[in-house]
Amino acid sequence: MLTISLGLVGFALDAAFHRSAEAGLQARMESLVYLVLAATEVDVDGSLVFDENPGDPRLGQPGSGVYASVSGDRDHWASDSSLGMSLPEAVQIQTGESEFLPAADETGSYYTFRYGVSWELPPDRLLPVTVTILVDPQELQPELRAFRKGLWQSLGLTGVILVLAQLILLALGLRPLQRITEDISGIESGKLNRLEGNFPKELEPLQRNLNHLLNTEQANQVRYRNALDSLAHSLKTPLSVIRSSLPSDGSAKTVAIENAVADMQRLIATRLQRAAASSRSANAPAMDVKTQLERLVLSLKRVYSQELINITVMIDTDLAFFGEQRDFLELAGNLLDNACKYGNGQVRLSAQTIDAGDPQAGIRLQVDDNGPGIAEDQREQLLQRGVRGDERVEGHGLGLAIVLEIVSAYHGDITIAKGDLGGACVSVTLRTR
Amino acid sequence: MRILLIEDDSDLQTSLAEVLRGAGYAVDVSGDGIEGLFYGQEYPLDLAIIDLGLPGLPGLDVIRKLREQERQFPILILTARADWQDKVEGLEAGADDYLTKPFHPEELKARVGALLRRSAGHAQPLIEHGPLKIDLVSQRIFNGEQEIDLTTYEYKVFEYLLMHPDAVVTKTVLSEHIYEEDADRDSNVIEVFVGRLRRKIDPEGLLNPIETLRGRGYRLNNPPPPT
Predict the structure, then answer these.
(1) Tens digit of pLDDT for each residue in B82-133?
(2) Is residue B140 domain-shared with residue B108, that is, in the same domain?
């Protein structure tokens, strides 16, 4: 854009200069006409007499580029400079008229200035004479070249300065946008909650709207979760009442109600988890895996009493999870809880990132125990529906069902295998990209 | 063993109290956090069951305040919010175990029994005391292969002494822990229970398992080493 406009300016200036150079040339040619006229005498018989040196040395020098000719009715004079040149035929024009013809583009074309005069001859006769000055266009070239050189040099310099200025202005002008980009990635990585800091006035509406959007999203999530939570809460207490008021007589009716209550419990828990997991925000803040797992381990040791359970934790100090903390605690809590319930006191927990090059890609979590393990034919069944593998301790099936919901919400995988400790080894990946 | 139950749902409160009383515990109940906290501070409790969603004062705060005031009895959380986040927060506040609603009453009894055992330093539900074997789950006592038939209150007295071995337990403490707050207490009754217990578990009078310390109370002695 800049180049085009500077180019146009250049051409316009060049054309204007060209015109003014031509105007200057015309003035010079006109004065040459008077010089030639001054050197011309007319005899009484009407013949023309010339002073051989009209006062301009260029006229006396053959091929100098400036040529003069005078033509009357009978006589024709041409300056010494036109010797050996093939010049266009002289043309007569009316007395008192003058014309200036600019050189055409083709070679052999000249700037032409004609001036018609007439001498008064006795007795009352007029002798019309036309003075013609031809100038080779080459005459203008040095002048034009010098001008063009200066013109393009200064235009080029201006262009460079303008481009530099534009770059600087652009960089300065885009800096706030750069900061917004940095802040948004800060929000993504969980370091920030909203766009902070002073932005230029022009960007304040953008900042306001983005913050508003973030707030709305957060508020919506909280509202959803609270609504679901209170729904679950209000359903679970009556279910507890039903359960604890059932007679323990083992009759068919009691068993049927028991089963129905168990079904409702499972539905509430898994649907609640599914809803919570699917309402997770795209930009969950980073969560320190080691800290949270240590909280869980301490809690479980409290529940299962320190001496009975030995939990080994193998996690890198700075491993971060870019999902919802609630989901992570739920998943790890259920896996560890199962390992504590079904193991024989030895539990091993390890976690790694799934992609060393991209810490936000997700994590892998393994829980090993030294219990009897899960038979191969039961694994598939457990993973499909989360049914209970063991009826003795409540919650295994439910815990695994919740784990499955979370794994699918994070597009992860789950596998059950025989672990190094001799029991079950449940391995889970959670993807956060 | 005396238990405080803080649960705001009156139906659940009633049925849980019934379940626990049926299991031989003395149960005090409260329906809100502030009153529950007061009971927790004032009554001689062996365990508290606290619902997390309470009016007045949230369950978590009740637990924190009790722990701040050095109340060391085990606390079991009842919660409808099954999230581990809530469980972890509850356990960090000072609770010892949690139970997610809706739970089975048997599960509640098992957890309560396990917590009481654990706070007395017993990991297993089967305790051996000299020739006696006590099953805390089925609440039965055996002398060798012979089962000893105890009444509910006799068992309660024995269980309390068993959970506080080598400690001197006054009659007041015993009655406080086997009766609820508004029950009629008569320390003579305790003497009667202890007398009957002695006759039942040690008919020949060889072991003297329950020693009377005059003016102070009773103490369950360590059994003599097997000969």
Answers:
(1) 678 888 888 999 999 988 888 888 889 888 988 888 888 776 778 888 788 8
(2) no
What ranges do the domains of chain A cover?
2-143, 189-279, 284-431
Residue B29 inside a domain? The answer is: yes
Tell me which fold the domain A284-431 belongs to.
Heat Shock Protein 90 (3.30.565)
Task: Calculate the dihedral angle through the C-alpha atoms of A233, A234, A239, A245, rounding to the nearest 10 degrees.
Answer: 120
**Which residue in chain A is spatially nearest to B110 when comparing CA positions?**
A393
Whether this model's pTM surpasses 0.90: no
The residues in A 289-318 lying below 8 A from B, measured between CB atoms, are 295-296, 298-299, 302-303, 305, 307-308
ipTM of the complex: 0.70
Using the 3D structure, point to which of B72, B89, B119 is the last residue of a domain.
Answer: B119
DSSP letter assigned to residue B130: T
Is residue B5 helix, strand or coil? strand
C-alpha–C-alpha distance, residues B190 and A96, integer Å? 154
Boundary residue ending a domain (B91, B119, B147)? B119
In the DSSP assignment, the letter for residue A279 is: T
What is the DSSP code (8-state) at residue A39?
A: T
Q: From chain B, pick out residues whose CB is under 8 angstroms from the CB of A229.
A: 81
- Neighbour-count burial of B21, counting CB atoms closer than 10 A to its CB (0-12 exposed, 13-18 middle, 19+ buried): middle
Tell me the one-letter amino acid at A282: A
